[in-house]
Amino acid sequence: MILHIGLKGTCTQIIEDAHTAASIGSGSLPVCATPVICALMEHAAVNSVSRCFPAGTTSVGVFLSVSHRAPTLTGHSVTACAELIHTEGRKLTFHIQVSDEGGLVAEADHVRVMVESSSFLEKAAERYHS
Question: Half-sphere exposure (CA, 13 Å, Cβ side) for 59?
């Protein structure tokens, strides 16, 4: 598959106690935590484009601007829908919306950069040996 504007990907999660702000420490209430929403958003973006990469290539997240607008209680399902809206060289820009049965929960703009996996990991390791 060829990388092109309009590619879409999703990620769905039923919210359990482990996903709540109270459980992970990002707040005190038993509602879906913003960090969980962020992870779902990134997963949806990855799902939209990863099948387009050649072997040995992946993408890494470098920017995420999130507006978390509504709470989701445990037992409810949330779905993140990502759409590739812009490409510039190795840089991929997505718009992502998350919704549950009650409507829009969050939205974000997200940037990922395509990298060669082994080279990226080598550079990451070098950070600790300089």
Answer: 29
Residue 37's Cβ-count burial label (10 Å; 0-12, 13-18, 19+) is: buried
**Nearest-CA neighbor of 49 among 13, 116, 1?**
1
Please state the CATH superfamily assignment of the domain spanning residues 8-126 in this structure: Hotdog Thioesterase (3.10.129.10)
Q: What is the mean pLDDT of each run of 10 residues along the chain (130 residues)?
A: 94 99 98 99 98 97 99 99 98 99 99 98 92
The predicted pLDDT at position 102 comes to 98
Measured CA distances, 116 to 54, 57, 69, 72 (Å): 9, 5, 35, 37
Instruction: For CA atoms 12, 15, 63, 102, give the dihedral sign.
Output: positive
pTM for this model (two decimals): 0.96
